[in-house]
Amino acid sequence: MLQLRYVWEWPVRLTHWFNVISLIVLSVTGIYIGDPMLSVPQTDSFVMGWMRVVHFGFAYLFAVSVVVRLLWMFFGNSHARWKAFVPWASKEGWRNIIGTFSWYTFLRKKPPYVVGHNALAAMAYSLVFILFAVQIVSGFALYGQYDPNGLWASVTAPVLNLFSNQGLRLTHHMIMWLVIGFAIHHVYSAWLMDIKEKNGTLSSIFSGYKFIDPKDL
Amino acid sequence: MQKQEKQVQDGVIPEEILQRWETRGISRRDFMKFCSVMTATLALPITMMGKIAEAIEGDNRPPVIWMEFLGCTGDTEAFLRANQPTAIDIILDYLSIDYHETIMAAAGHQAEAAKRQTMEKYKGKYLVIVEGSIPTAEGGIHCTIGGNSALNIAREVCGSALATIAVGSCASFGGIPAAAPNPTGAISVTKAVPGATVMNLPGCPLNATNLTASIVHFLTFGKLPATDSLGRPKFAYGKRIHDNCERRAHFDAGQYAEGFGDAGHRQGWCLYKLGCKGPETFHNCPTVRYNEGTSWPVQAGHGCIGCSEPQFWDTMTPFYKRLPNVPGFGVEATADKIGLGIAAATAVAFGAHGVASALRKDDDMESDLLKED
Ligand code: SF4
Predict the structure, then answer these.
(1) Local structure of B164: helix, strand or coil
(2) Domain count, chain A
(3) What pTM value is reported for the model?
């Protein structure tokens, strides 16, 4: 018998949705800031100004959300813990990596049974968290330049000196596209798993609950 | 005498000083202008004007050695033809420039002897100004003067100086000679003489007003102005060009010139889309400007190329684009084109996977369980 089990705790879901909203807003405003495609006729408008205000505001929201999620890796349940994100560190994890990979590449009939993240997804998330970290650091380094005596500038000065201003800007652009690529894959895979696993994967990120066979717990 | 002190306290230039300069052929108007420009450039309160006037009158003339290495003499040019010829008269009159390859009358052994004499007589008390970077490849043979390599000369001369001012981007950060692939192994003065006190005045060329102001600061306070993490004086490099730019209102509004000479460009709109590097460059160009405060690149209609930033030739190019090209992807491959490609490729790949998965039978996880239920 399948039973409903609470898998994703509320901080996991909350930070997930904060990340989604901020990534959408940050990408749209970021693309405009990088290449302002519309020129406005009136000088008293404030289009770029607003784009930047919104970009910086959501940048703070995103940074806080990512930090909270990282902290939750040390307080949450086993599906949210940091250990779940390094499947390559255990023998069983390796079996899951190979299993999930073979299923994705049509070499295996059924996906390995997991309650939380599957091994490949967990690895993708580890990589994405690294991308997020680079994006946050490069973003605040570029932002901090408005005030060279300010807090951000003093914290991020080594990064700027090491990678150069334009180097950071290029990185910031490239990572945005990688994250967009990840988002496409992520939605697709969640959808696929929802169909194939039939355990309520898609709705679980709203409710937190999944259908689990108690034998697997 | 007491009256003079009181005046100086109030920021007034004492009459006697003005008269003395007049006898040297510099009108009181020019001298006052000079002092106020210096006070303003250094961001000092106007009450300091009297102090400054007094300082450049004192009898503590510091000897100066001006050295040129891998450079184009552009900084010397900028300094000598500087804004307000009188300002230069004042400074040249005041400083004792004992060695300067471009303007000294002496030549050969005579010149070298003069340099040596200054170094020995004023050990630890003279100022050095360096223009151009210092080559290190193949034992430094790419720049030798009087049979000695630039590296040796710099170590010797800067090593026993009171302070060194690196003028221009080459001396400050390596500049154009140090741009990739840097065949001569050119390095900045700071790197060549690690222990020395070096202040950087980058720019291509530097703004002569900033050099004059630094010297005036030195004369007035006995030390060089406060510097940032890159060794640049904060009074000149403490703000971003973009944050002081006269076109900034157009930037915030969302009005951009799309090409040189188009309607937006003729109306003075922001040059961001023409590759302006004002948002990544720290310099006081918009406020001090060049050529007697006449103009500066963005005012003249050309975007900033970031010439005063470290490695500008490598990092700020292409000058007419916002972002550098992506290394390894050939010419003209912009980050956003490649990124869009990555996103599209992901969508196509997973789309195909989706079609394949939809056609696949019997890989459902719970189908058997569900049947049992
Ligand atoms: S012209 Fe350049 S420095 Fe001026 S506002 Fe535009 S981008 Fe900034």
Answers:
(1) strand
(2) 1
(3) 0.88
